[in-house]
Amino acid sequence: MSATAQTTTEPQCVVVCEYTACLSRFGEPDPYCISFLETCIKESFPVYVIGQVPVQKIKAMVGSLAQAVHCIGNDSPQTDESCECSAAVCIRNSILPAIGDETAILSVCSHNYGCCIARFSDVVFARDEAAAYCNAEKIPHYPYSTMFDVKRLFTSKVLHGKIHPRNKARLLRKDAFETE
Ligand SMILES: [Zn+2]
Q1: What's the 86 CA to ligand 1 centre distance in angstroms?
Q2: Which CATH number fits domain 11-176: 3.40.50.1000, 3.40.720.10, 2.40.30.30, 3.60.10.10?
Q3: What is residue 121's three-state secondary structure?
């Protein structure tokens, strides 16, 4: 992101990581997760890590980044807008009210809890249930296996390329809380 972009009041793009996407498939913290989050912060992307676990567990996982990362857990205040995901902590409801209509979303999802944000995202990294959902719903996404892949693709495709806003995602963001 260029230096001039940081002077705008509304961030151009936020990074939203589902908590389970930050873990390996064995449930351990993914060793590359912190490195990916650090890169996002260094590049001035606001970062959210959201999970169906207490916020302290998320803060413990991000460790020294806890001050810089927005951590939202199942004990954080939630809006009660209806959503197809039926998760206790709806990622869409946690993120959309917190950002502007024109702010792009980059999401990293693995569980089906993350699916509702994928639909509203301009760039999606997905594995497992989230990848199956994106395939079924024809949502363009980058498949990944570990956070190493996410960091590599983020650096090569997002930082050194350009985020192509998905008009469909932007329109959905505008409509999300107007039609309910
Ligand atoms: Zn939802």
Answers
A1: 6
A2: 3.40.50.1000
A3: coil
Phi, psi of 100 (to 5 degrees): -80, 160
Expressed in angstroms and rounded, the spacing between residue 173 Cα and the centre of ligand 1 is 13
Give the Å distance between the CA of 53 and the centre of ligand 1. 15
Q: How far is CA 51 from CA 9, 74, 100, 153, 160, in A?
A: 27, 7, 22, 23, 29
Assess contact for 111 and 133: CB atoms under 8 A.
Answer: no
Centroid of ligand 1 to alpha carbon of 113 (angstroms): 7
Ligand 1: centre distance to CA 121 (Å): 13
pTM of the model: 0.89
Domain segments of the chain as ranges: 11-176
Residues of the chain falling short of pLDDT 50: 1-6, 8, 180
